[in-house]
Amino acid sequence: MEKNKFVDVVGLRLHSNQDILYFSANKFHLRPGQYVIANTPNDIELGIVAVANRRMELDKVHIPFEKEHLYPVVRFAAIEDIKQAEEVREKEKKAFAVCVEKIKSHRLKMNLTNAEMSFTGSKIVFFFTAESRVDFRDLVKDLASTLKSRIELRQIGVRDKAKQLGGLGPCGREFCCKSFQTSFTPVSVKLAKEQGLSLNPVKISGTCGRLMCCLDHEYATYHELYEITPKVGAIVQFGKKEQGTVIDVNLLEGKLKISPDANRDVPVLLDKSEVVLIKDGVEQVARNEANIDNKFS
């Protein structure tokens, strides 16, 4: 395929936990939620449309499997295909149970998280976590002999494990990685600092033990508000030409806690629209955790 060539692509999910993969639409006009059969390097797979047809430059398409080769959608899925996929899901559960027992019998230090069987049942991929590298060559031979399929074992990280297993985050909603997030991006403590959050690892870490992905999702909004809101330490004017120093900020509500020059022991709470900035404060990269936890209490 030539570079800069425009292609008609469609985004599919081949498995419930998998990222969106792009395939050639192959002259099919597809809508989200439709089931289709697509070619892959190993075999045909059943996929559900997640992204409808779109024309993109080839070099901007994240091509799965093999570079420069965009695999096509071959047909719409029939009722028989849906039934076959349901049967495959049941076989996956049985294969998972078999693999758990084999891991115990081989005395391997690994935790199985998921099993994915190809649409035709010719290949099974087992996902696991482990604290170090695991020699699973004998396990693969044992599984291939028992399950009569090609076997692949794939070690994943804790974030991928959380995405596969799913669950509820501290916010009470389904994990971002499970519900809508298609890939992981680096998350740093800086994002928590600039959002004025507690730097207690327990409070800013997800169930997987890593920093919460939502810190990255929400950062752009906080950063935009941060640019238009007086910072801690800023000198502002309010009321009848009174002046004071900003001692705390609630970015989302746009509220400022101000220590007036006339009476520093009695702070006032004002909206940012009620003050005039005289001199902005310096950016704070860290705050006292107690002050953050008791903000505006």
Describe what you observe in this structure:
- The protein contains eight helices and 13 strands.
- With 297 residues, the protein is an alpha+beta fold.
- Helix 1 crosses helix 2.
- The model is unreliable at 284-297 (pLDDT under 50).
Q: Indicate the CATH topology of the largest domain.
A: GMP Synthetase, Chain A, domain 3
Q: What is the CATH architecture descriptor of the largest domain?
A: 2-Layer Sandwich
Helix fraction by DSSP (H/I, runs of at least 4): 25-40%
Q: Which secondary-structure class do the elements indicate? A: alpha+beta
Strand segment tally: 13
Number of structural units classed as domains: 4
Portion in strands: 25-35%
Distance N terminus to C terminus?
Answer: 62 Å
Largest sheet features: 5 strands, antiparallel
**Tally of separate helices:** 8
Task: Give the overall average pLDDT.
Answer: 85
User: C-alpha Rg, in Å?
Assistant: 27 Å
Low-confidence stretches: 284-297
Sheet with the most strands: spatial strand order:
2-1-4-3-5
CATH class label of the largest domain = Alpha Beta
Order of helices and strands: EEEEEHEEHEHHHHHEEEEEH
Shape: elongated
Short description:
The chain is α+β, with helices and mostly antiparallel strands and 297 residues long. It folds into four domains: 6-77, no CATH class; 83-156, GMP Synthetase, Chain A, domain 3 (2-Layer Sandwich), CATH 3.30.300; 164-226, no CATH class; 229-293, SH3 type barrels, CATH 2.30.30. The chain has eight helices and 13 strands.
